[in-house]
């Protein structure tokens, strides 16, 4: 993952930072009764975005727009957009399956409505995966966000 992506994102999103909740590897932003937790894992080369609230899609779009602009300044490194599985097993699992948006779009183009989760062997709605609105999850990895309940739209950016 190119150095400084999360730092640049924090700077670009400074107007939306909630109560000065930012740190070296992440930030909590808020806009129109909607919050996002954005964290970076440099060792595993990904950025995780979790959004909760009324206007998830709008805030999610703003974040993606800013990340795309940052990528343009970095000569557009290869990024794989992924979303986690929402089957009954993965929804409560610490390490759920992830699907690339490219793959989900191919399934949709071929007229498929579901994809099979390799963990649970359950059929999962492609529409639900694309929107990816999940049940309550706990964020446990950052001090300022411990026990923060999230109904989230999630995205993973793999570098």
What does this molecule look like?
Helix 1 packs across helix 2. Residues 133-153 have low confidence and may be disordered. The protein has one domain: TATA-Binding Protein, CATH 3.30.310.200. By secondary structure, it is α+β, with helices and mostly antiparallel strands. The radius of gyration is 16 Å and the shape is globular. Helix content is 26%, strand content 35%. The strands form three sheets. A seven-stranded antiparallel sheet has the order 1-2-3-4-11-5-6. A two-stranded antiparallel sheet has the order 7-8. It is built from four helices and eleven strands, in the order H-E-E-E-E-H-E-E-H-E-E-H-E-E-E.
Query: Number of helix segments?
Result: 4
Helix content: 25-40%
Report how far the terminal alpha carbons are from each other.
5 Å
Total domain units: 1
Task: Summarize model confidence as the mean pLDDT.
Answer: 78
* Total DSSP E strands: 11
**Envelope shape:** globular
CATH class: Alpha Beta
């Amino acid at each position: 993952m190119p150095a400084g992506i999360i730092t640049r994102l924090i700077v670009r999103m400074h107007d939306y930072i909630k109560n000065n909740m930012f740190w070296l590897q992440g930030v909590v932003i808020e806009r129109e009764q909607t919050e996002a937790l954005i964290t970076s894992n440099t060792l595993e080369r990904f950025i995780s975005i979790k959004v909760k609230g009324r206007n998830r899609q709008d805030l999610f779009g703003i974040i993606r727009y800013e990340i795309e602009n940052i990528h343009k300044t970095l000569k557009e490194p290869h990024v794989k957009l992924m979303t986690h599985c929402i089957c009954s097993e993965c929804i409560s699992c610490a390490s759920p399956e992830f699907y690339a948006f490219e793959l989900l779009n191919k399934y949709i183009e071929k007229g498929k409505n579901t994809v099979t989760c390799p963990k649970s062997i359950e059929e999962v709605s492609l529409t639900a995966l694309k929107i990816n609105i999940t049940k309550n999850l706990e964020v446990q990895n950052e001090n300022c966000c411990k026990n923060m309940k999230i109904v989230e739209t999630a995205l993973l950016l793999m570098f």
